[in-house]
């Protein structure tokens, strides 16, 4: 099955699925784990993500027209492949469910204080469902439009925040004695970098996607730069102690900036929320599609729409089980802790398996 996605579409899907909910707590998480030198941790994390992007993209590219389930069967056998696919299904489903819940919680907190969270989720599930049943090509076109706008919005927000910040709040930029602290903090920030695993469901064409590795690596580099700028711009406003002590999120920092000369933008957090929502819609659509896509591989006789409906229902039930936001964050914390398995360990094992299999074919 060839979806016929362009290099641009694939790279924007990679951006959309990576830069989602994670940016809201990014400044707080980086500040608490790495201090003012957090940009070093983000840079190192970006290099790690670029390496894994190389691993996964190369694996997909060297198996043209195939997805993980197809070439994995030739390497590991059907039983192990099903275990791998089911693991990714549960992983994708958990991420999709918890991001949807947190997005609805943020809407309630910022704008709809008296609206039940479940009602917002029902509406959001409906919108995402309609996008997903149109399949990957339609999602790619949606991503191409929305993410281009979202990138513009995020960069504009960063410039805006910097215009109100002070460079003294960003110092010291680097402390030599904290180098091991910077490195150790990488594992605490992995949730903001997950997403490249979604490439396993996108078949690639050796002619049409010849430059896909370059596109994906540039995209990851852009993500890293944006993350560093988001972190630095936020601490330029409140200082490192302000973020750590108040546990400030990106929205709280934006809300604390008063624009005296632009009444229409008095609530700049609302302005940013529009662009962020575009990203959340795209990322959740991709996570849901990935869940449904691999589930369809396990149950090939069931229609894609029926599978998607079932997943949405299961996801909704799971999303309302946690009664408090703290419980949802605990689930996301668990996802962050197991993410190295899906982001690093399994892709490397699959990559080595593909390499060994190809060498065997050459020797034969």
Describe it:
- With 364 residues, the chain is an all-alpha fold.
- Helices cover 74% and strands 0% of the residues.
- It contains 13 helices and no strands.
- The chain has helices at residues 7-18, 22-34, 38-61, 68-76, 78-110, 117-132, 135-164, 179-184, 212-246, 250-255, 268-298, 304-320, 325-363.
- Helix 1 (7-18) runs parallel beside helix 9, helix 1 packs across helix 11 (268-298) and helix 5 (78-110) packs across helix 12 (304-320).
- The radius of gyration is 21 Å and the shape is globular.
Could you name the key traits of this structure?
globular; 13 helices; single chain; 364 residues; mainly alpha
β-strand number:
0
Query: How many angstroms separate the termini?
Result: 28 Å
Strand content: under 5%
Low-confidence stretches: none
Structural class by sheet pairing and helices: mainly alpha
Q: Please state the average pLDDT score.
A: 87
Order of helices and strands: HHHHHHHHHHHHH
**Main pleated-sheet profile:** none
Question: Can you count the helices?
Answer: 13
Gyration radius, rounded: 21 Å
- Outline type: globular
Helix content: over 70%
């Amino acid at each position: 099955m060839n979806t016929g996605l362009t290099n641009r579409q694939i790279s924007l899907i990679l951006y959309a699925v990576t830069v989602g909910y994670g940016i809201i707590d990014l400044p707080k998480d980086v500040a608490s784990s790495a201090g003012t030198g957090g940009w070093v941790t983000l840079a190192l994390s970006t290099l790690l993500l670029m390496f894994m992007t190389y691993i996964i993209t190369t694996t997909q590219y060297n198996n043209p027209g195939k997805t993980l389930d197809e070439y994995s069967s030739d390497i590991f056998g059907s039983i192990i492949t099903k275990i791998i696919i089911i693991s990714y299904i549960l992983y994708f489903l958990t991420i999709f469910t918890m991001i949807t819940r947190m997005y609805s919680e943020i809407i309630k907190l910022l704008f709809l204080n008296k609206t039940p969270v479940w009602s917002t989720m029902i509406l959001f599930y409906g919108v995402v469902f309609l996008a997903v049943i149109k399949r990957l090509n339609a999602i790619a076109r949606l991503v191409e439009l929305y993410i281009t706008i979202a990138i513009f919005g995020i960069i504009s927000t960063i410039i805006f925040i910097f215009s109100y910040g002070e460079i003294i709040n960003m110092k010291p930029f680097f402390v030599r004695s904290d180098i091991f602290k910077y490195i150790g903090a990488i594992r605490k920030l992995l949730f903001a970098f997950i997403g490249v695993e979604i490439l396993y469901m996108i078949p690639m064409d050796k002619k049409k996607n010849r430059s896909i590795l370059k596109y994906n690596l540039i995209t990851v580099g852009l993500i890293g730069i944006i993350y560093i700028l988001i972190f630095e711009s936020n601490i330029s406003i409140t200082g490192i102690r302000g973020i750590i002590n108040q546990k400030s999120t990106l929205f709280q920092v934006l809300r604390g900036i008063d624009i005296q000369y632009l009444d229409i933008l008095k609530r700049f957090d609302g302005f940013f929320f529009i662009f962020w929502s575009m990203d959340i819609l795209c990322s959740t659509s991709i996570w849901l599609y990935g869940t449904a896509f691999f589930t369809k591989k396990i149950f090939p006789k069931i229609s894609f729409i029926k599978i998607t409906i079932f997943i949405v229902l299961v996801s909704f039930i799971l999303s309302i089980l946690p009664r408090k936001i703290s419980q949802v964050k605990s689930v996301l914390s668990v996802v962050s802790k197991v993410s190295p398995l899906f982001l690093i360990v399994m892709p490397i094992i699959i990559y080595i398996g593909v390499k060994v299999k190809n060498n065997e074919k050459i020797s034969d």
